[in-house]
Write a structure and sequence with these properties.
By secondary structure, the protein is of the alpha+beta class. 65% of the residues lie in helices and 12% in strands. The protein contains 14 helices and 9 strands. It has helices at residues 2-25, 36-55, 70-80, 82-99, 104-120, 122-127, 131-153, 159-230, 234-261, 273-290, 309-325, 358-363, 379-389, 416-422; strands at 59-61, 64-66, 269-272, 293-297, 304-307, 331-340, 344-351, 393-399, 403-411. A 5-stranded mixed beta sheet has the order 4-6-7-9-8. Strands 1-2 form a two-stranded antiparallel sheet. It has a two-stranded antiparallel sheet with strand order 3-5. A hairpin with a 3-residue loop joins β6 (331-340) and β7. It is elongated, with a radius of gyration of 28 Å. The structure holds adenosine-5'-diphosphate (ADP) and magnesium ion. Adenosine-5'-diphosphate binds next to α11 and α13.
Length: 425
């Protein structure tokens, strides 16, 4: 018994410490797609995790070694995708080949089994809100295939071995998923509270300024209106409507900013996303053409999303305007469908402007963060809030001097399939 407990704890400790290590460098967040560089780093760290597991086998029988190397492979493939899973598997295969013995081929086949099954069910796992159920399903399928293989080729294995090894695997696999789910939850709470803190500061300032500025503005507006209608001065008569228009515009800007502070419940409706994108592109195209930027959208097909149309439009306009302003000479902004799952659709808004450094990327959306002489630094902050309020997500990817891609994820209406049939798509 002790011979089994000890390596089991060592293996779990290894898997846990590597998971913590990953989370320290790249806080785990659901729905955020890591960059290519981060995926490679995820693959390498989990590969090392698997190698350390191989150094502490739970059982060594003849030339076969049983350890928990498959746990990092499965976890990283399920949570991060095919690339890190492939890197981790490659580490394991090379190490197993270096170890040699009669059963090298079986070790390699079992590695492919762990990778293949995780890859097959990755989409299903990613989508499932109750991860436990899909994890249980995956582990059962994996265990059955595993037993089938080793039972056929390694006849010397005893029933005791099966019990010890598979209970270790299941304990490690599920504790790892438990740990990751906890970490994700903690990260989200942390991000949320930091965000709300910043919002509160900006909100209080905006509310105070708005209050102070609005009252004298109302008086000025009334005076201009009065003078404009009673004066015999032709110039004042001619210009007073323009003055009033400008005052109204200023008032609208203040109202918009205040809308960020006020708890405003979005009016969620079932809307065809294609129409919103087409509208937004026609609204922003004139501003684009002034700056020699072409704004285009692909035919994304009909997808019914559950959103507040006005707020989504406002957010998209802010994103596209930033893209246009990031292009110095000529360029283009392109909107297209990036990814679709059972619950969400992700739209990419890509520009070939000046891009951002990693440091700049981190600051985007913070109150008053701007790099423009006449910028307010509130556009993205408002946009983040609008999108979050309707259950969406916004993610920025950028390469300096190459361009920026904004990934906007929106909840699909649950009845979308039915409606798509109704509209004949
Ligand atoms: P503002 O547009 O008033 O500066 P925003 O909150 O809209 O405020 O944007 C904040 C900053 O983020 C911008 O000043 C700019 O530096 C950066 N930014 C936003 N979108 C892009 C983009 N597509 N490309 C490059 N930089 C961007
Ligand atoms: Mg802006």
């Amino acid at each position: 018994m002790q011979a089994f407990i000890e390596p089991l704890f060592v293996n779990i400790a290894i898997v846990f410490s590597f998971t913590h290590l990953l989370n320290m460098f790249f806080p785990l967040h659901p729905g955020v797609i890591p960059s290519l560089k981060n995926k490679v780093i995820f693959g390498i760290i989990s590969g090392f995790g698997a190698l350390v597991c191989m150094m502490f086998p739970i059982e060594t029988l003849k030339d076969s070694f049983f350890d928990l190397r498959n746990v990092p492979i499965m976890i990283v493939t399920l949570y991060v995708g095919w690339l890190p899973g492939a890197i981790c598997s490659l580490f394991v295969i090379l190490a197993r080949m270096a170890m040699g013995g009669d059963f090298v081929w079986l070790g390699i086949v079992l590695t492919f089994l762990a990778y293949g099954i995780s890859l097959t069910y990755q989409g299903f796992f990613d989508e499932d809100k109750r991860r436990w159920i899909s994890a249980l399903y995956i582990s059962v399928v994996y265990t059955l295939f595993y037993i089938l293989l080793i039972h056929t080729y390694l006849e010397f294995l005893t029933l005791d071995f099966y019990l010890v090894y598979f209970s270790s695997f299941l304990i490690a696999f599920f504790s790892c998923i438990f740990l990751i789910e906890r970490l994700v939850k903690i990260n989200m709470q942390l991000k949320e509270s930091v965000y709300l803190d910043k919002l509160a500061v900006a909100g209080q300032m905006a509310a105070a300024i708005a209050h102070e500025v609005r009252n004298p503005m109302t008086t000025i507006r009334g005076m201009i209106q009065f003078l404009g209608s009673t004066t015999i001065d032709e110039k004042l008569k001619e210009h007073s409507p323009l003055l009033i228009e400008e005052l109204d515009r200023t008032n609208k800007i203040i109202t918009d900013y205040l809308s960020m502070v006020k708890p405003d419940v979005p009016k969620l409706e079932r809307i065809n996303l294609k129409n919103v994108l087409t509208d937004v592109v026609s609204l922003t195209a004139p501003y684009g053409s002034i700056h020699n930027v072409e704004v285009t959208v692909c035919d994304i097909g009909s997808h019914i999303v559950n959103i507040d149309e006005q707020k989504l439009k406002q957010g998209l306009i802010n994103i596209i305007k930033n893209g246009i302003e990031a292009i110095d000479n000529t360029g283009s902004i392109h909107l297209y469908k990036y990814k679709i799952t059972k619950r969400n659709i992700t739209i990419a808004i890509e520009d070939n402007g000046k891009g951002m450094t990693e440091k700049e990327l981190e600051q985007i959306g913070l109150p008053f963060y701007t790099t423009k002489a006449k910028g307010t630094g509130l556009g993205m902050m408002v946009t983040y809030k609008l999108i979050r309020d309707m259950g969406g997500k916004l993610h920025y990817e950028s390469e300096l001097n190459e361009g920026t891609r904004v990934l906007l994820t929106l909840p699909l209406s649950t009845k979308s399939n039915q409606l798509q049939e109704e509209v004949g798509v």
